[in-house]
Amino acid sequence: MEILKTHRSWLFVCPLSLLLLSGCPQTSEDALVVYCSHDAVYAQDLLDQFTAETGIPVAVKFDTEATKSLGLVNLLIAEKENPRCDVFWNNEVLGTVKLQQEGVLSPYQGPGYERIPEQFKDPDGYWTGFAARLRVYIVNTDKMQASEDEIASRLEGDLSRMAIAKPIYGTTLTHYSLLWHLWGKEKLMAWHEDNLKRDLNIVNGNGQVKDLVAASVCDFGWTDTDDYFSALDAGSPVDLQPVRVEGRTISIPNSVAIIRESKHQEAAQRFVDFLLSEQSELKLSQSASRQIPLGSVNESQLPEETRQLREWAAESHDLRQILDAHRECLEWLSAEYLK
Question: How far is Cα 263 from Cα 260, in angstroms, rounded to an integer?
């Protein structure tokens, strides 16, 4: 089942109202350049809104579902000496931290930075998290109960009816990195090998996990809350449970950072503040992805489902503690999957 989305083309954000007034830019020279690993279907409305409110055109480069966010992280490192990008909107945090360590990012602490809790941002302002997702078990309720006990029982036996995304990319890489940090190298490797022997299905992305479970090809699997809600909204017989590791959940924010030597610093700062605003976090929480606001918001404007997710997200691990584990785990997984 091949369901990968390919968004490697450049898109210019230019709402019709602005088109009528001034026309879309013909080259990226006039535009704020944003690299974005967040799903285009959710990101595009905010990009359009930013341009409509500010008059600043945006040229956006999206990545693929399968290599998301790693592909853009590697591209930004490759472009370090001659950057083309102004702002990186990542769908996770650890790849953004890698860019910080590589000297790719420029610090910025504006009003948006101030409203985000300490756990979800760099203390020096090199990146800031917002609008999180949770790692969850997506369960086909025609095949099993979405209860902690049922899931725990299934995890002890044959795994041929379970699916996870290839752990070298995206939020599954973050998930594995946390396990590396908590369990150590040997335990994680042994656990991974044992899962493979029990016929765990490893597929190309979280979206494919969601599709396999929704179609009853698999009974359950790991995915993120945005993919779970996509299946639920499509009428699929699915339910969820948060993934808990040593009693805590895994909350994975989006992150935003300005690229060092950006050609459009003022516009970049305005875009960062826009993404980190209460308005933007609420818009993402009200979208089909039901993303979880990290800063304070008007609770009455949150969908009921998102309120439950905020309670679970409050119990999450601090991912800033797993940076060394992320590097070491990625080295191992690269040897496993990029041979």
Answer: 9
